[in-house]
Amino acid sequence: MKRKYTFVMVSVFVWIELLVTSPAAALSLSYNTGSENVSGTLFTPQYTDQGQTYGPFGLNFSYTRSFDGARLIKHVEINFLFDSALGFNDGQKSAYNAAAETNIENIWNSRFVITDIPNNHTFPLAVDVTTTGPTFNQNVAVHSGSGRENALNFFQNSTRSVMAHEFGHHLGLFDEYIGGAVDKYPNPTLTNTGLMGLGALNVNPEMLPRYYQQYLNFMNALNPGHSFTLAAVPEPSTLLLLASGVFGLLASGKLKLSRLHK
């Protein structure tokens, strides 16, 4: 009975690890890799909703997306231009750049993966924000204090959720709230919880599958014939609950076995 108990425990840990990471480096099946530059224009004509007129809105976006055989990445190089009113020295500018990179990546990364279901392979999805140049995808002005942000204007006190929201425009995503640069008005895509909608006002906005659809399209184009799908990465709390449940079952089984042997 002891051997059976040990085998089950190890199997569960392996299953949990694969669910989260599934490192492609260990895969024997080969996939086509590649990289490409993506550019386009977001445009929302002027519209009137409940007597209020908004827009028009427009933005040119560009980024590089790539698949190296292990994960898919979207790379955006941002040139933060600091207002003289901020009085930032070089060290403060570097600190802002680093904080912006961390804020954006922490919200966007480790949320979804692409899975090849028939072959049981998983590929993480990530964004990579850099500020070193010399070629930039976006120039973003940084202003003192607080204010109404947009894709090209951040503030000294911009929250991480707002930064991540505006970064979504750098990837070609529309706003998902009335008053913003929405798509398909008078029937736009809206959300009260998602990052590109009113969720940007929350500390932990919901990251919706449609924000990652471009990754799936790219993977399908690189590797036709596979059955790829998007899958959400379980929240750490969910994994802890799962692990605690497993331990509970194992402990319960061990307790019963010990009682039987008394």
Please give a handful of descriptors for the protein shown.
disordered C terminus, 10 strands, 8-stranded mixed β-sheet, two-stranded antiparallel ribbon, 262 residues, 5 helices, single chain, disordered N terminus, alpha/beta
Tell me the Rg in angstroms: 23 Å
Number of separate helices: 5
Helix content: 25-40%
Return the structural class. alpha/beta
Mean pLDDT: 86
Strand content: 25-35%
Q: Characterize the overall form.
A: globular
Number of domains: 1
Biggest sheet, in brief?
8 strands, mixed
| Separation of the first and last Cα atoms | 15 Å
- Which stretches are low in confidence, meaning pLDDT under 50 for 5 or more residues running? 1-27, 254-262
Give the SSE string.
Answer: HEEEEEHEEEEHHEH
Strand tally is: 10
Folded structure, characterized:
This protein is an alpha/beta fold. It has one domain (32-233). The chain contains 5 helices and 10 strands, in the order αβββββαββββααβα. The strands form 2 sheets. Strands 1, 4, 5, 6, 7, 8, 9 and 10 form an 8-stranded mixed β-sheet that branches. Helix 1 packs antiparallel against helix 5 (236-260) and helix 2 (90-108) packs across helix 3. The model is unreliable at 1-27 and 254-262 (pLDDT under 50).
